[in-house]
Amino acid sequence: MNQKVDLRKVKAEELKLIELDTVDINSEVPDFEPQRQYYFMAKCRQWVRKFEQKNGRLPSACVTNMGCQMNARDSEKLRGVLQEIGYAGTDSEDADFVIYNTCTVRENANLKVYGRLGVLHGYKKKNPDMKIALCGCMMQEPSMVEKLKKSYRFVDLVFGTHNLFKFAELLFTALASDRMIIDIWKDTDQIVEDLPIERKYPFKSGVNIMFGCNNFCSYCIVPYVRGRERSREPEDILRELRALAADGVTEVMLLGQNVNSYGKTLERPMTFAQLLREAEKTEGLSRIRFMTSHPKDLSDELIEVMAGSEKICRHLHLPLQSGSTRILKAMNRRYTKEQYVALAEKIRRAVPDIALTTDIIVGFPGETEEDFQETLEVVRTVRYDSAFTFLYSRRTGTPAAAMENQVPEDVMKDRFDRLLKEVQEISREMAERFTGTTQPVLAEERNRQMEGYVTGRLSYNHVVHFPGDASLIGKTVNVRLDECRGFYYMGHTV
Ligand code: 5AD
Ligand code: SF4
Q: I need a surface site. Which of 100, 125, 286, 301 has the fewest CB within 10 A?
């Protein structure tokens, strides 16, 4: 018999090269990460082999992502583990394993989960061996877990954001048990590297640079469910960038709740601008994006790096949230309307054609018509390329939830509609500035509506449809933007 591998003796960066079937699962369980998770992946692989023998097919797994880019990246980590174990990926939720990676930033995201769990229960009645799992931000709220325990007993596995790295171990426990497995951590300072990841796109990827948030904007639940801010070591990030580039990735999105405060908690502190300077040196990468920037921490150094860079995309997402200094103060955003507008102007002066996008909340407690008019005024002054607009959602446990003067729903909706109209008109006008120009476009996918067309993105983040076939996907091509149709362009390659 071939010598079996004892994972306790394998270096972290070499784990990905180990064939799981050769792992010695009778050796002691490694008590350190990520070796421990590879051990459990090997155990799960054995389970998959048995499933295959019994059913004559591989078990299927569906990962549904419900949240932001950070969640999407976490879902790629879940898929990476499932694929490594041997599950066949599927988009159908009528599968042997279904996991929802949930979001809780606004209430409607929560309601959607409960609705869909009912559908999953139906599938499980037909396929009693089906396993249903829930993870992500919503699970970090104790009331949600209580509700699941009480009324959704058919759920098999529940875990949170801090122990996502333990997915393989938790999955193995769930496969071997009929009970509901719940493992939620309140916080962590651990960052586990070198676990498998299955990217959605071969040519572009998100890269976490930090986790958590320390800002405590008064409406926001993120600091409670994602924990304290912690940055990855720059060497680990740069190593990941090089590995991605070697694997065919040309565009990366550096991810963090507040990238502008990157590096502050490191033993050897480093600024985000310094990290970008290093990231730019990665051979093979041609585009670097990042998300999200908090206006209060956006430095001159960052603007300078952006202005001088060939690779950093000409797009900045700069959440405004409100244009009223009074409301911004109540939101604990720590900038004034004037400071925000001055910052946007400074960025536009340094990078004149940059696309600015934003997030705006309407109906924060105490928001008056005058406050709302100030938001509209900032929108008209800054002229965003696009803006995500949100109705304020009251999140239990946040300071804003306890504030008086919650804005009535009809008032909120009326303001929302007026804001949306303004934002859309400006986006349309702004997009016209590129009509007739030729731009490098990264072709991302075949167009689902128009046969013979592909869809790609400009550095400015605008979407373009143009005639082409699948061979273009993942390539950067020059496209003339013939016509602007509001939120996207029609063009042709030149
Ligand atoms: N209600 C409405 N929108 C919110 N956001 C965060 N919390 C809330 C809330 N309670 C929005 C903010 C943030 C975006 C990701 O979600 O605009 O920038
Ligand atoms: Fe929430 Fe503010 Fe942190 Fe963004 S910066 S995640 S809005 S608390």
A: 125
